């Protein structure tokens, strides 16, 4: 069985300088980039992933997910609007190693990468199963939102799931700690 890395929403709007920045986002982008430089290199001691994929917030008109007066629970400032620089991968992260990108949230809120689809319309869970993936590592932005939702869905879809906390950035300390507790309770390994 195969092992996958899912890189969640490492986009300009979620990093410093973006419309919805998470402290440490740019550093996480650079650290993930360093890992991706060696992901094929089992002999060099790098992480051994059979496939590496990314998710992207990909909003066209997500309804009340965007708000001019966001509550930062269910509504947020405009972010990751299709066609803007904010929706692009952060420049510290080279997107070339990705085997596939899964886009989520065109017309509704979408936190989990498992809500995402390829440009051809294939769902993340189906794509992973078609490649005999049984183990999934999750990293990216934000630990307490989209990383959390992606890891929970990964576990519920039957993948052995691990969150790589050193390669994540969270919005707030309390909500990140609560998310990690919830993930652990759901059977997700916290590394």
TrEMBL record:
The keyword Acyltransferase does not apply. Its EC number is 3.5.1.19. GO terms for biological process: pyridine nucleotide biosynthetic process. It comes from the Bacteria. Residues 4-189 form the Isochorismatase-like domain. It holds the Pfam family Isochorismatase. Belongs to the isochorismatase family. This is nicotinamidase. GO terms for molecular function: metal ion binding; nicotinamidase activity. Pathway: Cofactor biosynthesis; nicotinate biosynthesis; nicotinate from nicotinamide: step 1/1. Keywords: Hydrolase, Metal-binding, Pyridine nucleotide biosynthesis.
């Amino acid at each position: 069985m195969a092992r996958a890395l899912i890189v969640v929403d490492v986009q300009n709007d979620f990093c410093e300088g973006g419309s919805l920045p998470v402290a440490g986002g740019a550093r996480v982008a650079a650290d993930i980039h360093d890992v991706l430089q060696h992901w094929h290199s089992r002999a060099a001691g790098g992480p051994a992933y059979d496939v590496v994929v990314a998710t992207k917030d990909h909003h066209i008109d997500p309804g009340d997910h965007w708000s001019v007066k966001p509550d930062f629970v269910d509504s947020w400032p405009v972010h990751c609007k299709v066609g803007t620089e904010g929706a692009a991968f952060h420049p510290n992260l080279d997107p070339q190693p990705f085997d596939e990108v899964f886009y989520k949230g065109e017309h509704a809120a979408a936190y989990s990468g498992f809500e995402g689809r390829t440009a051809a319309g294939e769902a993340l869970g189906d794509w992973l199963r078609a490649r005999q993936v049984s183990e999934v590592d999750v990293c990216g932005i934000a630990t307490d939102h989209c990383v959390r939702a992606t890891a929970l869905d990964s576990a519920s879809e039957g993948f052995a799931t691990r969150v790589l906390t050193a390669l994540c950035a969270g919005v707030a300390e309390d909500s990140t700690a609560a998310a990690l507790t919830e993930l652990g309770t759901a059977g997700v390994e916290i590394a």
